[in-house]
């Protein structure tokens, strides 16, 4: 069953300079999909459109068959969560306070969070192994820790679909793999649908079901990781003839040769 | 399960958020009551409350002058502090306040224009000055916002810079108006610019409350959205906040509140800056706490500042704007030094 259906999306930030051109893609319920591509190819724009944070110039996004524009934003936030690339740290909120904002869609407008909400928030922090920073201020956390707190906030929404925009860009080796493992577990256990913009190509196989390769604002290739993560496809996607792929102990490795 | 290895929240995590909010508001109401009593007692003319029933002059001074003045300080302080808390949240900038964002300056320009055109012969008497100040404040907030938001997000630096420049332009405008106006009106503008909370009777206060109370209510209703915006704008949008609508409503309401208070009391600085920070020191960062507590604390703060201004120099009184500046400026510098996370901005 399809959960997200993008139909011919056109988008431009500046008139006459299209960021996305007739992008169509379909995400299956309970699947894990990755969006890859070179810097500035429109990945973040695409995931924002999928989350309804931007309105397309042409085309539309259906969530379970209903256009995003017709959905109540607050109710929709119980179904779909979005993790931005970076978050503000103007004020020294504690991690728990940040994660608790994820409970908002479940709390009626004139109430504050109750004990159950605090429990959900703490559990979400535990899922990403960040419960030890619950009472620390986000201004004192490292970039990677803040990213995981942001993921915990999205999980506290208890969504059925989560969109992540480069959630692992500041994470170390262990936490990158750990995040994918966490998301895979949630998919297997709760049927969570995952859509993730990422540059961690080596982590996509075999956890991810589908990879969409963007190039210049259009979908250049899509398919299973094995189909997309090939020398020829990646060389074109990243416009880089030095891209190489290989397998070590059955694990996919992708690199770009530094020496010409 | 809550493991509090790190220092737990100042207020103890055992109380539910709603109970903590009620407790905080009650505490602030207590502070407000104490400050009201203190400010009613302060002043050149000593008034004994218990002799009021048989002291006609004392009664007249108390009900026609002292009480209205204290109430005036309270409603202006509450408005400025609440607007400060809301602007800080929506711009995600702890240095935002009506003065630094040029809202007060714009309001002052609008009001001066109205006075110089003779639209308010008795400066405080007519709501036309309110409307002019409101329009001035609204124009400057929209200019500042447009300049600061050239990219996808409003940048802190350009925001404050734009605010300061708009303020300078507005000040220059006020000076020009003052210069070309005839001497009586020019003097009116000058006296109004210094700012005073002097008021006789309650009629002006009722007129102001007609604008202020709806503004307070709207800001309080937006506290939750503002909390989400203070944490992160994109996240707030993904959680169902209509960011643009919320921003527009806050600008409009801020302009209204600041416009009306500026039109009556002149531009009084620092209240919108200090009070929300004190509320944060007391109750934490959560805007749902900071906003209502700032409203009450702002009232208490300006009442005290005015009481101080009335009593410290004997028969002459210090304008309240000077008191808030003298108290507030150093306090704010101390706060900045104490809390490094504000100093980085």
Give the arrangement of secondary structure elements.
The complex is a heterodimer of chains A (260) and B (345).
Chain A: E1 2-14, E2 17-28, E3 32-37, H1 43-50, E4 58-63, E5 66-67, H2 73-76, E6 80-83, H3 95-101, H4 115-127, H5 143-156, E7 161-165, H6 173-190, E8 193-197, E9 210-215, E10 218-223, H7 225-228, H8 231-237, E11 243-248, E12 251-256
Parallel strand pairs in A: 3-8, 3-9, 6-7, 7-8
Antiparallel strand pairs in A: 1-2, 1-4, 4-5, 9-10, 11-12
Helix pairs in contact in A: 3-5, 4-5
Chain B: H1 17-41, H2 56-90, H3 103-116, H4 127-148, H5 156-180, H6 183-194, H7 203-221, H8 223-231, H9 233-238, H10 243-265, H11 271-283, H12 287-311, H13 320-338, H14 340-343
Describe the 3D structure.
The complex is a heterodimer of chains A (260) and B (345). Chain A has 260 residues and is of the alpha/beta class. Chain A contains eight helices and twelve strands. In chain A, helix 3 packs parallel to helix 5 (143-156) and helix 4 crosses helix 5. Chain A is globular, with a radius of gyration of 19 Å. Chain B is mainly α and 345 residues long. Chain B has one domain: ABC transporter involved in vitamin B12 uptake, BtuC (Orthogonal Bundle), CATH 1.10.3470.10. In chain B, 73% of the residues lie in helices and 0% in strands. Chain B has 14 helices and no strands. Chain B starts with 16 loop residues before the first helix and ends with a helix. The model of chain B is unreliable at 1-12 and 121-125 (pLDDT under 50). The chains are: A alpha/beta (260), B mainly alpha (345). The A-B interface holds A 51, 53, 72-77, 80-82, 84, 87-88, 90-94, 97-98, 101-102, 104-105, 109, 111-115, 118-119, 122, 131-137, 139, 150, 153, 157 and B 1-9, 13, 16-18, 21, 92-94, 156, 224, 227-228, 230-242, 284-286, 288, 341, 345.
């Amino acid at each position: 069953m399809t959960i997200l259906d993008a139909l011919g999306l056109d988008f431009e930030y500046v008139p006459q300079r299209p960021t996305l051109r007739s992008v169509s893609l379909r995400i299956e319920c309970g699947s894990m999909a990755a969006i890859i591509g070179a810097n500035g190819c429109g990945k973040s724009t695409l995931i924002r459109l999928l989350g309804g944070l931007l309105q397309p110039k042409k085309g539309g996004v259906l969530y379970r068959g209903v256009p995003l524009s017709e959905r109540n934003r607050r109710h929709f936030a119980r179904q779909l969560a979005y993790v931005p690339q970076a978050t503000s740290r103007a004020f020294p909120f504690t991690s728990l306070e940040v994660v608790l904002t994820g409970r908002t869609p479940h709390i009626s407008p004139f109430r504050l969070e109750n004990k159950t909400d605090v429990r959900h928030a703490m559990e979400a922090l535990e899922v990403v192994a960040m419960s030890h920073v619950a009472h620390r201020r986000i201004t004192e956390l490292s970039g990677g820790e803040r990213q995981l707190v942001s993921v915990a906030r999205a999980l506290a929404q208890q969504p059925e679909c989560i969109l992540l925009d480069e959630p692992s860009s500041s994470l170390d080796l262990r936490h990158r793999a750990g995040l994918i493992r966490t998301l895979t577990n949630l998919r297997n256990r709760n049927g969570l649908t995952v859509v993730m913009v990422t540059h961690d190509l080596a982590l996509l196989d075999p956890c991810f079901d589908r990879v969409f390769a963007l190039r210049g604002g259009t979908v250049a290739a899509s398919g299973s990781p094995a189909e997309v993560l090939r020398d020829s496809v990646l060389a074109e996607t990243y416009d880089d003839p030095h891209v190489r792929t290989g397998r070590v102990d059955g694990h996919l490795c992708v690199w770009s040769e530094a020496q010409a | 399960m809550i493991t509090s290895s790190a220092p737990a929240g100042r207020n103890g995590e055992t109380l539910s958020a709603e109970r903590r909010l009620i407790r905080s508001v009650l505490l602030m109401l207590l502070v407000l009551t104490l400050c009201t009593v203190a400010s009613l007692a302060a002043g050149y003319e000593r008034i004994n409350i218990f002799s009021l029933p048989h002291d006609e002059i004392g009664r007249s001074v108390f009900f026609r002058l002292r009480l209205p003045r204290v109430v005036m300080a309270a409603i202006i302080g509450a408005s400025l502090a609440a607007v400060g808390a809301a602007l800080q949240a929506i711009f995600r900038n702890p240095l935002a306040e009506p003065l630094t964002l040029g809202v007060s300056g714009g309001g002052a320009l609008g009001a001066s224009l109205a006075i110089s055109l003779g639209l308010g012969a008795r400066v405080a008497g007519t709501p036309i000055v309110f409307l002019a100040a409101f329009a001035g404040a609204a124009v400057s907030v929209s200019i500042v916002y447009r300049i600061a938001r050239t990219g996808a997000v409003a940048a802190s630096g350009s925001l404050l810079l734009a605010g300061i420049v708009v303020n300078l332009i507005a000040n220059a405008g006020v000076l020009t108006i003052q210069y070309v106006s005839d001497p009586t009106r020019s003097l009116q503008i000058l006296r109004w610019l210094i700012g005073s909370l002097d008021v006789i009777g309650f009629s002006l206060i009722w007129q102001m409350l007609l604008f202020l109370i709806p503004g307070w209510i709207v800001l309080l209703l937006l506290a939750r959205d503002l909390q989400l915006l203070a944490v992160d704008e994109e996240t707030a949008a993904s959680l169902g906040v209509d960011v643009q609508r919320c921003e527009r409503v806050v600008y409009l309401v801020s302009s209204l509140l600041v416009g009306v208070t500026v039109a009556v009391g002149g531009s009084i600085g620092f209240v919108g800056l200090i009070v929300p920070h004190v509320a944060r020191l007391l109750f934490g960062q959560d805007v749902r706490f900071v906003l209502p507590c700032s409203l009450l604390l702002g009232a208490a703060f300006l009442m005290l500042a005015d009481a101080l201004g009335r009593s410290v120099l004997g028969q002459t009184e210090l304008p309240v704007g000077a008191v808030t500046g003298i108290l507030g400026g150093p306090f704010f510098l101390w706060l900045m030094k104490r809390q490094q996370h504000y100093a980085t901005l």
